[in-house]
Amino acid sequence: MLRSRRLLFLLILLAIFATSVYLLRNQDSFEELPGLSNPLHDFTNPLRGHHAHEENPPLLPQRSLTHPIHRLITDAESTFQTVRARQSRSLADAVAEYRRRYKVPPPPHFDKWYNFAKRRGVELIDEYDTIYHALLPFWSLKPSVIRERTREAIGFDNALIAVMIRNGKVVKMDGGGEMYQWHRDATPVMLGNFIKYLPDMDLAFNIHDEPRVVVQADSLARHVSAGRKNMTLAYNSPSPRNSFSKRPSDLGDGMRIKDYRTTRFNKFAHQPTWSNSKLSCPLTSPARGCIDSDCHVNITAYSDQPLGFIRNTTAFSDICNSPSLEHIRLLRPPQRLRLSSFQDILYPSPWYYMDRVKYEPERDMPWAEKNATMYWRGSTTGGFSRDGGWRRQHRQQFLMKIQPQATSQILQYTPNTTSSTPEIGAWEVHSTPMTPYSKYFDIKFTFIGQCDPGDCDAQREYFGTTDPVNMFDAFQSRYLLDIDGNAFSGRYHAWLQSNSLVYKLAVFREWHDEWLKAWVHYVPLGLRGEEYVESVRYFEEEEGGQQEAKRIAKESKGWAEKVLRKEDLEVWYFRLLLEYGRLVDDEREDIGFGI
Ligand SMILES: *[C@@H]1O[C@H](CO)[C@@H](O)[C@H](O)[C@H]1NC(C)=O
Ligand SMILES: *[C@@H]1O[C@H](CO)[C@@H](O)[C@H](O)[C@H]1NC(C)=O
Ligand SMILES: *[C@@H]1O[C@H](CO)[C@@H](O)[C@H](O)[C@H]1NC(C)=O
Ligand SMILES: *[C@@H]1O[C@H](CO)[C@@H](O)[C@H](O)[C@H]1NC(C)=O
Ligand SMILES: *[C@@H]1O[C@H](CO)[C@@H](O)[C@H](O)[C@H]1NC(C)=O
């Protein structure tokens, strides 16, 4: 317990670029909360091709209707429509839904939050499970312990930004250095519209790109179950008080930050981090269970389709399912990934709030005028390459898969000649030369770096480089790729808002993941890459794909304009901080919002 407490000491680091944390994976599956898991629709029926919400459902040929991508799209679409349709329509509904999901009353001022969200036209008023999962283990700790550890964390040079809130104002901010001035500038602005409802508290924000808090699996499981028990105490409170308690005496007036002489953070610069990253994975998971160095990803966890098309992005981005991540060096520092196994609390990135990358519609063009290519430009970041290690890095692997001389896999339709209705057939995997398909890929490095000289030369020879480009050149392509690197790909929001279709290859999670759905708003890609070629070929060459690509591009644009606004960020942030304010309130069992 002592050890896990020490680790938990590191709490409350709000990972800087919107890290999403689904802690609970195996210990805490949503199956226990009735009705929460999305109904998995009948995806075995190939004839489901119609959408009730479409005006004129297009009639697609059999071959399109049976294609795995078509099925994934229709299933995701219908799940998403179900989620939209079931959103609460009144404060009373929202409170009931909250209590049903989390077995605890909403935090104080939930009515203020609800009105705030409604006024800003938030689309999904009930979907904030990410916050619940991130905070749950901390409920096992006394509020005073959490406060003390926060003070300790910000009282030492731990690369954290400290933000002190007193009487509804930010009274002090410190830490992070000059480079993060923009972060400090943005924080009070982001909080400005709701800070008057927040209790006095100290917050610590992680300035590093990578998450930093990880708890061993067995300890984590204990904290989660104790946390849930403590939450139940609050749930059973007969009539919770709708206000936060007075500032506790240990909190001070926020005018100065007490110095601490010791820190419990470890430094991992230029060391492999994989063995620490997987600490919180259960012993039975593939990541921990892999003993020799030749373990493979178990794709059945996230895919039930040929070529490994991703059905479940949560399972895919759970690094505990991926013993092979070590070998593709996704986790070698310097890294900036926000991973499933970490316990950092996620918050909306000021990067997005400050419009550091902005979509400019006048630089975009209609779908029909775009080139039929998948576009990506970037550098060889994602790990330092030595001794040919680049061959195992994920960006390089992507490029290798689509080289003209490579062999690729696609699906081919084979009509069933013995069937009485001969047009019924099946899609089968075929290996083929890449030549006829390489025209679809406009994917190039603009810079080769993070490598020993020999490795850099080898990569230059193998891939070549092209001149750096204006990011808006991308809009000439129908298909835009977004890949994890170790540099923040802040382009994602702008890509979604464009008239192009977005593909995302990512194991990290962000605050908005709950609101953006794979196969409805973007096409998810895996790390193995067998599906890369088919997932462009289908959209270009199959009748169903042509319609769907255009529609998804349009839907993602419309949806991004509705859910990725500054208003949405504020609403998410407001709710997180109300929850956090209750978590650190000494009377958290007795406070909350009730009707
Ligand atoms: C919460 O749970 C832990 C562990 O079960 C317990 O020690 C603690 O007293 C509980 N209550 C509060 C208020 O933290
Ligand atoms: C892969 O995972 C599934 C469940 O997700 C399990 O039933 C199966 O046995 C696993 N396969 C291997 C080879 O580990
Ligand atoms: C997706 O995977 C997660 C984690 O493995 C699991 O808890 C969840 O039930 C899965 N969702 C669906 C719809 O199968
Ligand atoms: C072809 O159709 C027949 C009759 O409908 C069926 O029994 C058989 O399994 C099908 N074959 C394939 C490869 O789907
Ligand atoms: C399409 O691609 C061609 C050749 O690659 C290029 O010259 C042209 O500018 C592109 N057109 C658009 C609209 O992007």
UniProtKB/TrEMBL annotation:
InterPro entries, alphabetized: CAP10, O-Glucosyltr/Glycosyltrsf_90
Keyword Repeat belongs to the record: no
An annotated Gene Ontology molecular function: transferase activity
Coiled coil: none
Domain (Glycosyl transferase CAP10) ranges: 307-587
Keywords: Signal, Transferase
Keyword check for Nucleus: no
Signal peptide per UniProt: 1-23
Protein name: Beta-1,2-xylosyltransferase 1
Record lineage: Eukaryota, Fungi, Dikarya, Ascomycota, Pezizomycotina
